[in-house]
Amino acid sequence: MIREEGAKRKADRDGNGMDRSRLDSCMLVFGSRKPCYFRVFNPPPMIRTLLLTGSLVLLASAHAQQVQKCCGTSNSTFLLGNTNYARHSQMIYLPGDLTNATDGPITHLYFRYGSTGQDQGNTMSNFMVRLGLTDETAFANGNEYFTDLDVVYSASSFTIAPGTTGEWLWFSLQTPFLYNTGRTLIVDITFESSTTVNFGTLGTTNNGRKLVSPDLGATTGSVTSSTWQDIGFDIDGTLGLSASGGLDVELWPNPATSTSILRWSGGTPTPSSVDLHDINGRLVRTTRVPTGAQQCEIDVHDLDPGLYLLRWGGTRSARLVVD
What we know:
mainly beta, disordered N terminus, elongated, single chain, 2 domains, six-stranded mixed β-sheet, Immunoglobulin-like
C-alpha cells in the first residue's frame, strides 16, 4: 500500500487539466460568486463558523456532527489534497460503520484535519461532492466506481481554512441527501487542482472501502490508499425546511396522513413542480404548481408510513413524515 503520511511527499502540479464545464460557485446559495471558506467545528461550544470571503456568518447549532465514523490517526492526502494520485476519491460506509445513524436528509458533511498541510488550508478548483446509496457492501470487482450518484455540492473554487490536527472541518450541502440507515453510503469527491497537495485528513486503515484515481473520467480506481477517512454528517431532524433554502416556507401538517400543504411567501418564486422522494431516493410523485400559486397540496393518502423528502426549485427541500 502507498502510505500518505504526507510530510515526505513533494508538492505536485495539476498536470491533467480536464476540459470540464465550469461549475457553479460554492457561494451561489448565499447569493455571491466568491470563493468559499469553511473552517473547524470544535465542540463545545456548539457554534459553527462559516467564513466567507469578505464576511463572517455564524450558524448556531444544538449539536456537533450527529452521525460519525471516528476516530483514526492515519493521515492521508488522498481525499482533499493530492492531485497526482487522487483527484477522484470514492468511499463506502456500511450501516455498521456509523454511530448514531438515523434516517433522514444529510445536510452537512464533516472530515477531520490531518497532520500535513492543515496549517495552510487548501483551495481546490471545480470541487464536487456526490452521494449515493447501495445495497452492496463492496466495490464491484474490488475496483469499480459506483455511478449514478447525486450531486450535493459543486463549486468552481472551494477553500478550506487552516485548522488543527484532529479537529472537524465541515460544509453545508447545497442539496440535502436522503439517507437510509439500512443501506451503504457512497461518498464521492472530485476536484481538478489543489494549492496544498499535501493537505491531509485523518482516518483508519483502508480495507477495500476507498478507491482513488488521478483521472476524473476513470471507471475504476486503485485501493492502494492506506487510509479510509473518518466522516461525520448531520441529519435534518426538524419538521421544516433544510437550511439551504433560507426562505419563508411552511409545510403543514407534518406528520401527515392524507395531505400536507407546502406554502411559500409572495416574494418567493413559484416552482413549476414539487417532487416527492422516498427514503431510498426514488421519485414517488410529482405535483404540478399553477403559475403564481402560493401553496401546493401534497397528496400522501396512499403512501406507506415513513420519511419522505420534498424537492423543488433545484436546491429547495423539506422533510415530510407520513403517518
